[in-house]
Amino acid sequence: MIKKIILIIFIIIILGGLFVVLTGCSSKTNNNLLTSSEKNEIINATSKNEITNSTSKNDTNKERDVDKVDYKNAAQKQMSIPKKGDTIAILHIKNYGDVKVKFFEEIAPKATRNFITHAKEGYYDGLTFHRVINEFMIQGGDPEGTGFGGESIWGEGFGTELDYELVPYRGSLCMAMSQLPNSIGSQFFITQAKYNEQWINYLKQAGYPEGLIEEYKQYGGYLSLYLQYTVFGQVFEGIEIIDKIATVETDENDKPIQDVIIEKIEVTTFDK
């Protein structure tokens, strides 16, 4: 009975964190607060059967056994420092400092091109992180700062680009979206959650692959977003700044009381 109560508490905590991310589409859809049924859909989609039957971008629509994914090797690649000459972006955040990210263009070409083009054109300059939840993520990219704004560089939304080997570990750069298809616009989020030992039993009972759980122990993150949201980049320098932002005071809608401003996103090449 006690174990069942503990499991229920963990699920409630996760549901509470899954006020998941929105997109800035012209349809003005706001998914800051998901309905109960939508939250349950996300939780249900993380069962082993759903993950096993999902297809990643590179699977050419063929089913793949998720247990055969080399999560250790994939995580090392995701967390590695960029190579000299690789394209990176530097988020200059007012009063906080710089956060540097690398991209996974081969796996998520649309999301990468969308973000980089917006950044080069100054689209993100002066925008805020309008939604901040400690031990979950920080979200920005909405010119309205409300959760309703933004659009892609094509003027319309686009769909997810998923791959088994890209995981929403701590520091992952992801595209926000609503639960509608092709709803990705300009909004993005960076996962901030650290490893939480109390989640391990839940992850095992929910059917997450053992290899994935082992990497979560090392890298942290938010596994309920796995194979749900496009991971197209990774923070490789400045994660401590994300942590500082994550602890700011927020209102009842998770919006910082004092604006956290993206002064500029600079696109450059890694030169080390």
Describe this protein's structure.
With 272 residues, the protein is α+β, with helices and mostly antiparallel strands. It has one domain: Cyclophilin-like (Cyclophilin). It is 28% helix and 16% strand. The protein has eight helices and eight strands, in the order H-H-H-H-E-E-H-E-E-E-E-H-H-E-H-E. It has helices at 2-17, 36-44, 48-53, 71-79, 109-120, 200-205, 210-219, 239-246; strands at residues 87-93, 97-103, 131-133, 137-140, 172-175, 188-191, 231-237, 262-269. An eight-stranded antiparallel sheet has the order 3-4-6-5-7-2-1-8. The longest helix is centred in the first third of the chain and has 16 residues, at 2-17. The radius of gyration is 18 Å and the shape is globular. The model is unreliable at 9-20, 22-27 and 31-63 (pLDDT under 50).
Write the SSE topology.
Elements: H1 2-17, H2 36-44, H3 48-53, H4 71-79, E1 87-93, E2 97-103, H5 109-120, E3 131-133, E4 137-140, E5 172-175, E6 188-191, H6 200-205, H7 210-219, E7 231-237, H8 239-246, E8 262-269
Antiparallel strand pairs: 1-2, 1-8, 2-7, 3-4, 4-6, 5-6, 5-7
